[in-house]
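Quick log. Single chain, no ligands specified.
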Amino acid sequence: MRKVNLLGGLSLLAVFAAAPGYAQSVNSGDIRGTVTDQTGAVVPDVAVSVVNVDTGVAKDYVTNRGGLYDTSSIVTGHYQITFTKTGFNRLVRGPVTVQVGFTSVNAQLKIGSTAQEVVVTTNVPLLKTESGEQSTTLEARSMSQLPNVGTDWQNFTILLPGTSGTPSGEAAGNPASNPGQFVAANGNLPYNSMLADGAVTTLPSSSNSDVSTFETVAEVQISTSSFSAQYGIGGYVFNQISKGGTDHFHGSLYEYFQNDALNAKDYGFGSPVTVPFLRYNNYGGSIGGPILKKKLFFYFNFEKLSTEGANTGFLTVPTAAELNGDFTGQPTIYDPTTQVITQTPDGPVVTRQSFADEYGNGNKIPANLIDPVARAIQSYFPKPNITGESVQGTTINNYYYNAKNSSPFTKYFGRLDFDITPNNRLTISDTQRDSPAVQNQWDTCPIGCDNVDTDSNNSQITDVWNISPQTVNEARIGFTDQLNYYVDSTLNQGFPAKIGWQYAKADQFPTTTIAGNCCFGSTSSGFSPNVNAVQKEQVFDLSDVVTLIRGRHILHFGGELLIYRTDTTTWGNINAGTFAFTGAYTQSAVGDNTTGIGVADTRSEEHTSELQSHHD
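-> predicted structure:
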């Protein structure tokens, strides 16, 4: 199946004041403000020098006739701003922390000489009064000081004001105490858009969105309401801004680990239990610095997640006696080969003779009537490993599984910032992820196990061009994809030949369901192969924004084109065949649920042979 959606948007925002109005950029900062004298009159032609303290890159601006200056899109970080004009003291402001969005830094100059300097070191106020937007910025420094399991900033979304978990999050395995990106804020529906350096990364069909590696995130801006129309959606917006290189080389090494040796056992209610197997190692390193001094900077991160956990639980599997056809103490079973149909006024009545009456050997199926295909299938069933419980003569919960699973995850991230000219900056960032794994449900591999590989990528290129002091163009291309491959572990392993199954429709283990307590009857799929499927999702994000400064007015206009594409096979597109055993074949008569056993049907040559013939 193939699905392609095209979403186009055009947003126009006119601002008739010097400061108000949301920034036009969604992956960088913007410093703007008005310069006045001590009387409050605007001062034109003031030289404004903006220096990135982290990289040393400097940019120069001049206030216009309205005393307004606007840096437009600049890399987030720490800046020092110097205001200079003949006849006034020179004013130095900073370091000022610039986050995603715009930061207002106004200046009031005092009459004097430029040789005299006034230095203001206070940062900009945290409370923004220029717009009604409700947003929170999670900074890397703050998040690194909070307790965290692993390297995932999503663990902190529940700490935001007015947030709570959602049913959709719980359905996806995210509890109310840690909803991640399924959080609801201030009563909003749990719909969101995830951005990475300004480019959309939320996938079209699954709505999945890979979050950036914790080590690579400089900040996450979470906008919950009243944000700019440029985002084009309701709900809320997560905008992940990556780290970049600075004018000095910096690096880091890190590891997060967990181990079952540090954990306690669950209470077993009289049954032996073990501590679930757990090995968790999340390690990596990063390095960043200059390639060309004050022009070209890089940042690179490698991260490896090695997780070995376990699924644990109880299931019912056939006992040795049941595998040999002995159902002593259980409901009476009847021989389907002795079936007699008697015509009555109320219609035909089916009756059968019990094995006990027929052979005088108790509630047992003779060995010569046990089907060889059924015997071969059940040889793959796990053997009982605990005593279990006895219910109405039947042993249940006699198999405890501690199925180990490994989920390795490799991530690469890179970013380049290139000041091509003083008026043209290029930012490129790319994240590559690969997660091959084996899904082990009940420790019965290859039956019920899946070979899974998820490969994903998200990247963006942003070009900011200061065409003139009054005109700035910002163009961005973003691309995200996620490729999911699911391959059943029994596929193409020759299982039909191994079990003597003549009528298989594919080289795969058959789907086997058995009614009743026994033999994986409590599972939704029975003792069966796992899924086969391929799903590929892609997002193309093209946008362009132009900023015009006219007097004391700032005008932003632009558009965004989102192209969503999904290519997928039918979920579970391979089925070699299905054996379903309900107990009907070993009942005394059709519909007599007090007799007959599902697992006894599997021993019957009559029933298994008929099921095989249905696949001919």
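The chain has a mean pLDDT of 82.
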